[in-house]
Write a structure and sequence with these properties.
Elements lengths: L2 H9 L4 H10 L33 E4 L93 H11 L7 H9 L16 E5 L6 H18 L20 E4 L3 H14 L7 E3 L13 H12 L22 E4 L1 H9 L32 E4 L2 H4 L5 H14 L31 E6 L4 H10 L4 E4 L10 E7 L5 H19 L9 E5 L3 H13 L4 E4 L29 H7 L34 E4 L13 E6 L6 H8 L9 E7 L6 H13 L3
Parallel strand pairs: 1-8, 2-7, 2-8, 3-5, 3-6, 4-5, 6-7, 9-14, 10-12, 10-13, 11-12, 13-14
Helix pairs in contact: 4-5, 5-6, 8-10
The protein binds adenosine-5'-triphosphate.
Length: 683
């Protein structure tokens, strides 16, 4: 069965909202099957309690507990206009302290940005202010080098960019420290015959920095391979070169997440030149300076047929070969690039149905050079219903690299509940594989046990917990109009902001409201608009999603330097120059200043509320001023809840999740159950 046809079978059991999401992203995102007749939750919505590998060759590493010094917004102002403070009693980390000299003779003549930090030219400088009173012949309190992103050493340029992004005193989070220890290498992993490929799982709570945890090792390895002139397979005349020949691939479940991740990777490459391409950017003119409210209007206009929107997200790399090191995209987009547009429609039909006439496009991408594959949100992309596209890509890459692996399109994952554990059938891919997720459902654990028994599991102690800085509140419906209750609670957010702020220009908080159904999103959006609360109501079917950029999330997503206006030369230095069909990194979003209200009146015009479904619950890094998440419909399961709630309280920032429910009468028992379950997730 083809990918699309299997998706359709699965989609039949999905609510309309999710079905539309599947069709628009081409990758079905979230399958919420109702519990079976036994009443037990399906294995993909049940979290595993134990990550221990059953196979003795597998490893489990859990990071020690760790308190963050301060959030990355340190130095910025909060809603009261006060500057966020770092933890004063903690001495700031001095990067020099963690650098031990290492031997990297090859890098001697390189520009500073490409030298490994802590190389021989930089002696560690240890300055202890208490040196006159204490014997410091032995190090005082040795702080782990990993915390300073110094073990193994990062390329100077990567370290500089990292500090530009996170602040000069940034410390690695537990999952990052583990990832650096186990995945990062100071030598290219791909060096000649010594190439050995590994598999890892990164499992840690939402907002704990998993993107950096995998991007740093991947980017460093790509750069080192380039610096050491490791030959590429496509240099071999017998291997077919295509328009795009990436060396690493990041798979993400939505176009929105792909765009944000590729922007982030570009930012980390500000000083170290590598080329990043996002497969989910359209050939649309820059929509810089278009605010989220304008985009929201566009949805309405589009519904009236007044605004012509591009009909689909499509990247046209045309035929010119162009250097790409890292490609980020959804599995369906990647398959389309690798196999040719419309590749799966050929398999449609059968004896009883007529065959659809489809033109199959030429493949645009060669997979032969791919040394790294990251599967972000792996529990979705390897979900029993939708793993087919993901595994198909992994199998295609293996074949292109000359080491085919077995691939059954109609594959049945062994039941996670089976009494007798099936014998593992390990798959050894000819590339490094990193799976990441904030939630490890039993289905993913079973998948790993079956195919990757010796994979190294790297986990944070907070896994399957809410971020520690995220408060929870349970709001009881009054029994009247629910939309009015939501409006009331929203106004309380801003009232409290105004009461507590210390400067008149402190911006008001933004709120993300999660509903379960498209119709609910639209109705609530219309109600709030009528009440003078500008909002962006976004569903998988919204036409703005087809524009090929993340402008529809402007003002809500975290703004990165790569997203802001930067001169063209700057952009060129961080990423490949835009191909036909690819947007320039500088045009990725609008400046946030114009999107922040400081008074209640401005809330009529500047959206401070985004209403959506689970579509936006995965992976997206929302701005620190998204301080509240409202969960107005009963969460479908706790995995969904963790991801929705986790859009706030990220990276040590303050946040609150407000869960709406009934306090009395019919349905109140369900609310009590939810309350208990949410309580159990608290850090
Ligand atoms: N070491 C660090 N110190 C401070 N902030 C950090 C650090 N690492 C990452 N961050 C910031 O934390 C935020 C969340 O990171 P990221 O999106 O990678 O989290 P995540 O674990 O992938 O979350 P999710 O599970 O929701 O996808 C980002 O804004 C990132 O810049």
């Amino acid at each position: 069965m083809s990918l699309l046809s299997s998706s359709r079978v699965a989609a039949r059991s999905l609510p309309q909202e999710l079905l539309v999401a599947c069709l628009h992203t081409s990758v079905p995102l979230f399958a919420y099957r109702s519990a079976g007749s036994s009443g037990a939750a399906p294995s993909h919505s049940r979290l595993v309690k134990d990550l221990k590998p059953s196979d003795p060759s597998g490893k489990l590493k859990v990071a020690p507990k760790f308190e963050r010094d301060h959030a990355p917004h340190y130095g910025k102002r909060d809603t009261r206009g006060e500057e966020y403070q770092s933890n004063k009693h903690k001495r700031p980390v001095r990067r020099e302290e963690f650098r031990k000299p290492i031997k990297v003779s090859e890098t001697k003549d390189l520009p500073q940005a490409l030298k490994l930090s802590g190389g021989p030219s930089r002696k560690p400088k240890f300055v202890n202010p208490l040196s006159e009173d204490f014997d410091i012949s032995k190090p005082a309190v040795p702080t782990p080098r990993e915390r300073a992103f110094a073990s193994p050493p990062l390329l100077e340029g990567l370290l500089e960019s990292l500090h530009d992004v996170l602040g000069p005193d940034a410390e690695a989070t537990p999952i990052q420290a583990l990832a650096l220890e186990h995945i990062l290498s100071a030598e290219p992993r791909t060096a000649g015959e010594r190439a050995q490929y590994h598999q890892w799982l990164l499992a840690s709570e939402t907002g704990s920095g998993k993107s950096i945890a995998y991007l740093l090792p991947v980017l460093q390895d790509l750069k080192l391979a380039e610096m050491h002139n490791i030959p590429r397979r496509i240099d071999d005349p017998s291997v077919q070169r295509r328009a795009i020949n990436p060396r690493a691939l990041v798979l993400a479940p939505t176009h929105e997440l792909s765009r944000q991740l590729s922007g982030f990777a570009k930012e980390l490459l500000h000083n170290v030149k590598l080329r990043v391409l996002c497969a989910s950017q359209a050939n649309t003119p820059s929509r810089k300076r278009v605010s989220a409210s304008k985009m929201a209007e566009a949805v309405v206009d589009a519904a009236d047929g007044e605004v012509e929107l591009s009909s689909e997200i499509i990247m046209r790399p045309e035929a010119q070969p162009r250097p790409v090191d890292l490609l980020v995209g959804t599995p369906s987009k990647v398959l389309e690039l690798a196999r040719g547009r419309g590749w799966d429609y050929e398999q449609e039909g059968g004896d009883s149905k007529p065959r659809r006439k489809i033109t199959v496009g030429e493949p645009q991408m060669s997979l032969a050079d791919i040394e790294w594959v990251v599967v972000d949100e792996a529990d979705i992309l390897l979900d029993p219903d939708f793993q087919e596209a993901t595994r198909m890509i992994l199998a295609d890459i293996s074949a292109a690299r000359g080491h085919p692996v077995p691939f059954e399109p109609e594959f049945k994952l062994p039941s996670a509940d089976a009494k007798r554990k099936p014998t593992p059938t390990p798959i050894h891919y000819p590339f490094n594989l990193v799976l990441t997720s904030a939630t490890i459902p039993s289905a993913l654990a079973a998948y790993i046990a079956q195919f990757h028994p010796s994979l190294t599991r790297l986990a944070s102690p907070q896994l399957h917990k809410l971020p520690p800085t995220l408060k929870t509140e349970h709001f009881a419906w009054t029994g009247g109009n629910r939309d009015a209750d939501i409006e009331h609670r929203l106004r309380r957010v801003w009232y409290e902001d105004l009461q507590n702020r210390t400067s008149a220009d402190a911006p008001l908080s933004k709120v993300l409201v999660f509903c379960n159904k498209t119709a609910r999103v639209e109705n609530l959006g219309a109600y709030l608009k009528e009440k003078g609360i500008a909002n962006v109501a976004l569903t998988s079917a919204s036409n703005v999603r087809k524009l090929g950029s993340n402008h529809h999330l402007d003002g809500f997503l975290r703004v990165r330097r790569a997203d802001e206006d930067v001169p063209a030369t700057d952009v060129d230095s961080t990423s490949a120059s835009p191909a036909p069909g690819e947007e320039n990194a500088s045009s990725a979003t609008v400046a946030p200043a114009a999107t922040a209200a400081t008074s209640m009146e401005q809330l009529k015009d500047i959206p401070h509320v985004m209403i959506t479904t689970s579509l936006l619950s995965r992976g997206l890094d929302f701005a620190p001023d998204v301080k509240h998440v409202f969960i107005v419909d009963e969460p479908r399961n706790m995995i969904d809840f963790l991801h929705r709630a986790g859009r706030s309280g990220r990276a040590g920032e303050a946040g609150k999740v407000v869960v709406f429910g009934k306090s009395k009468g019919r349905g109140s028992e369900k609310t009590r159950v939810v309350k208990r379950k949410v309580g159990a997730l608290k850090a």
